[in-house]
Amino acid sequence: MSEHAIPTATSAGMPAAPLARWLGWIGQRSTLVAGLTITAVILFVGFIAPFLYPADPYAIHPAHALEGPSAAFPLGTDELGRDELALLLSGGFATLVVALPAAILAFVVGVAYGLAAGLAPAWLDRLMMRILDAVLALPSLIILIFFASLVTLDNTSLILLLGLISWPGLARLVRNEALAQRGRDFVLAAEQLGAGRMYIARVHLLRVMAPVLVVNGTFMVGDSVFALSSLSFLGLGVQPPQVSWGSLLESALDIIALDPWWLILPPGLLVFGSLLAASLTGQGLLQRWGGHR
Amino acid sequence: MSTVLDIRDLSVSLRRGRAGNVAILDDFNLTVKAGEMMALVGESGSGKTIAGLSIMRLLPKGAKLDGQILLGGRDLATLDEAAMRRVRGRDVGMVFQNPLAALNPSRTVASQIQESWMVHNGGSLRAARARALELLGEVGIPEPAKRLDDYPHQFSGGMRQRVMIAMSLACSPKLLIADEPTTGLDPLIARQIMALIARLRREHDMGVLFVTHDLSVVEEHADAIHVLYAGRSVEWGGAKGFFAHPRHPYSEALLGSVARVGQTRLQNIPGNLPEPESRPPGCRFAPRCGYAKPPCEAAYPPALSGEGTAAACLYPLPAGHRGQDTAMLQGKTKRNFAAQLEVQDLTVRYAGQSGWFGGAAKLPPSLSDVAFTLGRGECLGVVGESGSGKSTLGRAVLQMIPYDGHVLLDGEDFAGKRGAPRRLQRRRIQVVFQDPRESMNPRLSIGDVIAEPLRLKGGIGRAEERRQVATLLGRVGLNPEMAVRMPGAVSGGQAQRIAIARALAAEPELIVLDEPTSSLDVSTQAMLLNLLKDLAVEAGLSYILISHDFAVVSYMADRIAVLNAGRIVEMNDTEKLIQAPQHSYTAALIGAAPQLHRTTR
Amino acid sequence: MIRMVGTRLASSTLTIFILVTMVFFMVHLTPGGPAYSILGMKATAASVAELNQRLGLDQPIIEQYGIWWWHLLHGQLGYSYLLSRPVGELLWQYEINTLVFYTVSIVVSTLLSILIGLVQGVYFGRWPAKLIGGLQLAFYALPAFFVAAMLVLWFSVQLKILPASGITNLRLADPGVGSYAAHLVLPVTTITLLTVASLSRYFGEAVHEELGKDYVRTARAKGVGFPAILFGHVLRNALRPLVTILGLSFPYIFTGGVIVESVFNYPGLGWLMWRSALSQDYPILIAIVLLIGILTVVGNLLADLVNGLLDPRASYE
């Protein structure tokens, strides 16, 4: 270069057309947008659609047993001649109405335990973590199966069961984060200024951990749906006569030799969709917030 | 002397996200001769690191390079990647900052040095190992045969850097690029590394391009100097001429802002280094230059050669120009200080690593039997190398760690206090940390950060709080509008000033400063130290200033305590300590710090 | 190094101790006490009392706790009244099957994950990595029962090339390795698909992170070529987190295992646990829970130890 570059007003050479800019905005956040969209769809299917679709899930039509999708039965019928779409929507509601509160319960308990351990004196923290390690030693599904065999399974007990089993993972994460952040200079400075533990937790720790908490909370919702569906699949979750996505898949599996793809795909895809929604949303949020820690 | 490296009209631009390419380095020309140490000096953002990386063609993706880089006659800029790989390590060696990260933690030292050899020479493992042994000996590693199969983390910082140097010499390159090799090392160790590099360049008749931000590091050994500012060369030439009489105003300011032992005034460069996107046309230093005139801003000044050095300045400083008063070890007026802080029998044992079965008993205590008294309005400097316990001392006084012994503030012991009275007493001692950005919660605004002490005390409304925050920002020389910004958007120097403002908001009597300027550029450092001095007088503050930089401490402190291995080895009034150190360790530290060379050389 | 091993062993033992205690108390949480669970909820008071006395359930809880440990350490894990066999024998028999199944799955998963992760890490930011990333996300979200069901649907029912179940019958007839292997294909594929999704992602991220580190820049400055950098420098550092993850995912393979085993009627530990839960056969359930818990702790311990061997720095902690 013979002459040195005189810095001109940089950035975009040409202003982008509004649509292009909007698409670019979405493209940057594509993961998050996809996740939120699927979440909206699942929530619709679970909480709104059941009240819009008129068919009775328990009505039996023996004459139309095991038919594929048709005008009368959009998703076909099962071996008893019940409307698969109606079963799906009823099952969706039953699944979500347990999974979501369970996830919230697990989240709250996990954060509380984790923060308490992270802020506690060293000996108490070590004790709390030992207990946590022991609890975490058992895979959650195993504990779920064990306790599911013990109690009568209604919505309340399922919510409690699911909620009280999956919080240790979050608790450990929160505790580790709290410990890491607690030693940072700005927390030390606040302590020197006279801040107490509750102030530190509220003003500093939660704020700094907020992205981690939200992202993990999202994943927990997905895990909750998966756990409930797995339990139901094994017969230890939502009990008959109420159907759920897991139990629908299990019934379909019993007659799989008859190639009932319309009974397998919908419930499977919906559980898949729930997990995908959670993963994409969490991942999208992580991408947005990743740099601002 | 033959020329090893000849860079001609080098311009480098990097891709910066949406903004496209941004010019980092413009019209760069530099030569290095065999057996010569060329110091490439510039602050962060000057482009010096990019210059070094360009020679090795290790630039990030999307970088554009124009110009010629002639090594022994061959233009490196035109080589393809395969040919360049043959050059790297064989014809040009490179040593980086932070040797712990720059070495693979999972491979032995021997295997990494052997790799340097075998990549270019093939051959047997035994020959490579013999060469590695030879190199380790040459760089001064004691008992090299025993250390061949050690891993990087088993070496101390200084030793690790020697290993890196050994690795770079494996194929006897004609040129060695050293990118800030001594940054982060203790002053005594840094001097040893400098001496090593200087010796090697003579013994191997090797050209050394020493890239650094710290002029004082190269004063003793550099043969030639090249100063960069905001991507362009401002002055270059022989080192002797440069240090005797710098001709570019920036060079003068840079030299003047380096703290030297016994100095009483530091030169301050107002303003900030321009970002690459917004560099002014014309002379890039003009906006901050005390001697600038209108023609300076029109076009970039051509180089004007004079006695000793060439400077890109329309009005280079004449010979014999006396700049700011930088020499003169003046006697600091002895003030009488009423006792404020008393430390007795302070001992700290780190209990942290004990685990269930305790094992920490085997580790030596971090601090042993430290005792001193601090007067009201006095500044006590605490110097020592890493591991000396100086940070531990600060934290103990701040009550951040448990300790044995007594710390009394105005006669009241901290021990035995709990809850609210303890917190109130702690508030009277405030802290400024080393890392300016870490000391602020990244998710709070600057205003929130400074207001925190006010909120914790309570009792004032929002409007009054805002007013006080604005006042505090003004006291540290910042624009009150800064209150709405986020910590990520301010520079290191600004962030440190915010930390000071926050400390002041608590109306403390004493501030502990733990390496407050170590992460900052030399010119920013000067600004901050001057600010602290002014504030001390204005608010009647006492300081405990902790640093490994003896010169910084001697500039600020009334008394100095020298720490080694957890004990105070010497403590005295500043001038007495400097003029007549009693302990050999003190003398060594003083010797390793930048001296007032203009009058003593 | 020895110190580290000792410390980890000690803390693992403590964890197992707490675990066993927890399970003990879990047992006594069963409504009505263990006796009811064994006899069924319709048992008369007399038969319950008699069983309580016979099993020593009417003694103070501290004594029962002690007897519990005594039995455990002697390998006596109880007796399943419903299946009329000692629990220990049952566990052993079913465990073998699970072991075969999981070992194959883990080996295949690990090898695949390393390959995929390498590609993902090296091509980070470019389309191959993005494609892999998308697939990983999708497969991670697939529920185990759905994958298993779909595989059965396609390969057993529609294409008829692989068997869906019946491996127990096979053992009796003993037709040879080939057919046995064919029965394993679908279950192993299911587990592999699910495990590879997350394992390869961890590894891919680790590879990418290592590639950005300073020592890679140093190696380039020495003139080392890219393959040598990848396999000589990056790999050994990136494998470390993988080992930890493998150790941690020990128990989670059991989780997917329960479902997969139930779909394919594979007579492994997971299948046994499922049937025992449905029939409320507590002695077996308790024993399996304990076994899995202990295996998890052991898995973590092994992972830490291997990590310690691989990482030269760990010996100095």
Give a topology summary.
The complex is a heterotrimer of chains A (293), B (601) and C (317).
Chain A: H1 18-28, H2 30-52, H3 84-119, H4 122-136, H5 140-150, H6 155-165, H7 167-182, H8 185-192, H9 197-233, H10 245-254, H11 261-289
Helix pairs in contact in A: 2-3, 2-11, 3-4, 3-6, 3-7, 3-9, 3-10, 4-7, 5-6, 7-9, 9-10, 9-11, 10-11
Chain B: E1 3-15, E2 21-33, E3 37-41, H1 48-56, E4 64-71, E5 74-75, H2 81-87, E6 92-95, H3 99-102, H4 109-121, H5 125-138, H6 144-147, H7 157-169, E7 175-179, H8 187-203, E8 207-212, H9 215-218, E9 224-229, E10 232-238, H10 239-244, H11 249-257, E11 304-305, E12 309-311, E13 339-348, E14 367-375, E15 379-383, H12 390-397, E16 404-409, E17 412-413, H13 419-427, E18 429-432, H14 446-457, H15 462-475, H16 492-505, E19 510-514, H17 522-539, E20 542-547, H18 550-556, E21 559-564, E22 567-573, H19 574-579, H20 584-592, H21 597-600
Parallel strand pairs in B: 3-8, 3-9, 6-7, 7-8, 15-20, 15-21, 18-19, 19-20
Antiparallel strand pairs in B: 1-2, 1-4, 4-5, 9-10, 10-12, 11-12, 13-14, 13-16, 16-17, 21-22
Helix pairs in contact in B: 4-5, 4-7, 5-7, 7-8, 14-15, 14-16, 15-16
Chain C: H1 2-27, H2 34-39, H3 45-55, H4 61-73, E1 79-80, E2 85-86, H5 87-122, H6 127-141, H7 144-158, H8 167-173, H9 177-211, H10 214-221, H11 226-264, H12 269-278, H13 282-310
Antiparallel strand pairs in C: 1-2
TL;DR?
The complex is a heterotrimer of chains A (293), B (601) and C (317). Chain A is an all-alpha fold and 293 residues long.
**Which ranges of chain A are low-confidence, i.e. pLDDT below 50, for 5 or more consecutive residues?**
1-16
Q: Could you name the ranges of chain C where pLDDT drops below 50 across 5 or more consecutive residues?
A: none
* Largest interface between protein chains, with number of residues from each side: A-C, 47 and 53 residues
The figure for the number of domains of chain A is 1
Helix content of chain A: over 70%
Strand content of chain C: under 5%
CATH architecture of chain A: Orthogonal Bundle
Number of strands of chain A: 0
Helix content of chain C: over 70%
Neighbour order of strands in the largest sheet of chain C? 1-2
Secondary-structure class of chain C = mainly alpha
The tally of helices of chain C reads 13
